[in-house]
Amino acid sequence: MRAHALFGLTLATSLFAACGGESAPPPQNPPPTTSASVAPAASSAAPTTEATPAPPGDQAYTLLTTATGCWLGGLWGDAEGETGAAERRAGNERRCGRAIHLMLGIEDPAKIPALRALDPALTDELLAKVLELAKADRLDAAHTDGLKKLGVAVSIAARESVLAHRAAAKIREDIDKLKTDKEKQSARDKDASKLSADDAAAAGPLKAGAGLEALFKLDVGDYTKDAHAIGVLLALGRVRVSRDIPKHMKVYAVSPAYQTVFGVQPPAVPDTANAPLKPGTWLGFLVDVAKAAGHPVPETAKTPKERESHAWAGMLNGFADKLKADQGLIKSPELGEVVNHAVALLEVRAEKAAEGAEKKAEQKEEKKGEKKEPKKP
User: Between 20 and 30 A from 300 (CA), which of 144, 239, 275, 329?
Assistant: First the structure.
């Protein structure tokens, strides 16, 4: 394996917080549907400044890995230690800019928004450049077909993620327009009926997961473990998408991830996106996922809050286990470092969730003891 320049990564305890964590803002312009072709497209923006070309050797996969870092956005940035929306945006801008530079050999900031949004013309141009570099490299040439399949699969799955993020952001925006905090909390937890018809219709992209499943199951020889790890990271992104949206829509958002990664079928929910969710459905789903992930909720957890915290911990540990299976087998050192840090952070968050559940149980027992204690005269 040839060496790549490693990112200086630091632990950031903000990754995958119990409510799904904060993600980088979605692109401003909705990405249109991509073609699966890799035909080069004409460049639309003039380059700005000259830069030294990328070093020879493994340039094809370096370009594809760098573009993947751009598309993963906040997930990649979290593992690099970026905190706060502004720092995540700046980091993603840097990664996307590097991908543009590797593709064109020059700096062209005007193309960054299109790459981040997975504009099909620019995505096809990038994939065509990956194939061009692979064919010109005596070591990469034998992997040209695998690189092509991987690039197309990653771009399609990443586009699904972008569209899901945009849909969830629109729903959260609509909730924030409700007049009172009580109405907002009700819309998130119990009843989405106050959401507009437009937002209900926008929930459609939350359900999409064919691209994620295809990437997760992709067999591309030396790059198979990389494809699997990227699929797990994108699945984690779908968990983050579910932050602060109605529980009914949470099921839509996480179902592609939980079904693909853990094989858990989603519960039956109404087709109408702004309908209320039957009580207990969301918790039951999480409990099933934790069990399938190999970390079932302990029988000692009795209350819904305890069970939910333990289920969340089990789910996070399950994702960590999936990434651990890829550690040491990933071709890209950059991606390998991101996976290593993601595993560590997932385990930290899982431990905190489990500790929270135990604390709730202790508080419950303390309250029971206080009630039994006779009042002093």
Answer: 239
